Amino acid sequence: MELLREHIKQGEVYRRSDLEYYSTAIDRHLAQLSKEGLLVKINQGLYYAPKQSKFGVVPPEDHQVVERFLKDEDFLLVSPNTFNSLGLGLTQLYNTTWVYNHKRKGEFKLNGKSFEFKLKSAFPKNLTKEYLLVELLNNMENLAEDQSETLDRLPNKIDSFNTDALMKATQLYGKGQTKRKLKSLVRNVLQHA
Fold first, then answer.
1. Using CA atoms, how far apart are residues 136 and 113, in angstroms rounded to an integer?
2. Angle subtended by helix axes 163-173 and 129-138, to nearest 10
3. What is the pTM (predicted TM-score) of this model?
4. Long-range Cβ contact pairs of 89-95 (< 8 A, separation 24 or more)
5. For 66, which DSSP code?
6. How many CB atoms lie under 10 A from the CB of residue 106?
7. 13-15/46-48 β-pairing
8. pLDDT tens per residue across span 106-129
9. Rounded distance, CA 1 to CA 94, Å?
10. Coil, strand, or helix at residue 57?
């Protein structure tokens, strides 16, 4: 048990399988460490070693929790709330985070938060404003926004995006309808520039 206790570092997320090498009775020891508050169970087989700050317990970062859950670093977290930052008048707030990945599909509660895992063949390493616009258009039917109002505002905002980056993101990640819409918009902006 002491070997296991020494291995646990505050602020880290662990899978049961990460810790079983340091214990001869892993389930009993995990239950005991959870009772002591050294570990907090955040999902089946997933534990967090709470880190304290002067304001109390610091929750684990979503990225770290998802990485340990998937046993993979190849994913992208997208909150539908970030679409509100595009300047298109979007205001809805959502209680879920989308996880674009190559392994899992479905909705999971991790550390009390809702994550919707979506299988995607391709996605960038990091979120960009241009990729967010492509994803907004790809997902319009799943959002609680007025689609026609959003699409009406788009021509006035399209020049605030990097055109080359937008066309590249559209080509790589856009659905057919998204590609047609953005190519048409960008073409109009360029012709009137």
1. 22
2. 40
3. 0.89
4. 89/149, 89/150, 89/153, 90/136, 90/143, 90/145, 90/150, 91/145, 92/143, 92/144, 92/145
5. H
6. 9
7. antiparallel
8. 999 999 999 999 999 999 999 999
9. 42
10. strand
